[in-house]
User: Fold this.
Amino acid sequence: MATTAPVHPVDEVPPVRRLAAFGLQHVLAMYAGAVAVPLIVGSAMKLSAADLAYLITADLLVCGIATLVQCVGFWRFGVRLPIMQGCTFAAVSPMVLIGTTGGGLPAIYGSVIVAGLAIALLAPVFGKPLRFFPPLVTGTVILIIGVSLLPVAGNWAAGGQGAKGFGEPKNLALAGFVLLVVLGVQRFAPAFLSRIAVLIGIVVGLAVAVPFGFTDFGGVGDADWLGISTPFHFGTPTFHASAIASMLVVALVTMTETTGDLIAVGEMTDRRVEPRTLADGLRADGLSTVLGGVFNTFPYTAYAQNVGLVGMTRVRSRWVVAAAGGILVLLGLLPKLGAVVAAIPAPVLGGAGLVMFGTVAASGLKTLAQVDFKDNDNLTVVAVSVAVGMLPVGVPTVYAQFPDWFQTVMNSGISAGCLTAIVLNLLFNHLPGKAGSPTKGAEPGEASATA
Assistant:
């Protein structure tokens, strides 16, 4: 009797009810970050409320399409792992500069399209050095991703950056309540409910927030029922050399960040990312970024926020995240639904974020547990990489006096820490004359140099 090969957890398709619940949980985890980029850029350019709303719905639509491309994949596009896509924060400062002094939104979109094409073309080259990402480097990068996201959760818990009552005890109390609900559900609820602990925490937190005046649903009534983003809504893209140059630097940063995120999810799902699959994932980033330039939004990258959710819930199916992509497409086409989600108070998201982002950092430590730290310099590699990665997180203005291109690279703690880990691993473990110690869990045939 013929037996069918077991399906890898990444390829499993949960029942529709669970698919929808798990997918919604991913959307809620990344929504605040997803809409932040168009809000920041649009506000800096002093766009009207209608144009800001248009930017947000366009962003949600392309977020959904980009996520579907990354998770489901076609031909050589998409890593086919549970990866959410969203606008990268690395592009915010360059885009604000381009938009306010260098040609407005058409100049931004021209540079974004060129950057997307560059990412797609460079993807195969970027995928080849994957052997320089052993557990020492990947564990360090995953740890940096998690720790660098914790201030985001802290800002949400305090009420949201720039909020009128930022840091008020009631905000932190609501965030703490949501955190306790998430932990309680994860510890005591049945298996299915424990896997949607974040969703339950957000729903319960929202229910508590309404009578205490945390929420404002005024934007729901003002939002349109239907909104369709048309290509080049703000005019035909223009191509300026200076704008393109700065966006190409952003492209290198986002490729570095995406590489770290894809490797992290590969570790969590037990489907190791290979050079070819990494190139496919980066190529999907490039395509999504080109679509962003065409459909009035911005560069796209893998969202680290959702990496923590995969690790915390242990739901590894890429179809769950594909369902989240479908929900984002709906939110982009139905602005009124998007306005409802936008009304969730920041402290509610903060309480959930503390668990998710902490889980990412803990996953990095789990990967580092495979590394041998005896009689070698591996501890130095981790120490210096984490220190460099945390510098811009702890002191955001530390590189304010440096050139713009340098700030674009180093102001991202993830890219700064990742680059440092790669360089130090090469310095201590790959250069001739430096004897290293074998790493537990290294690939067969690899010398100690790949520790």
User: Anything to note?
Assistant: The beta strands are 85-87, 300-302.
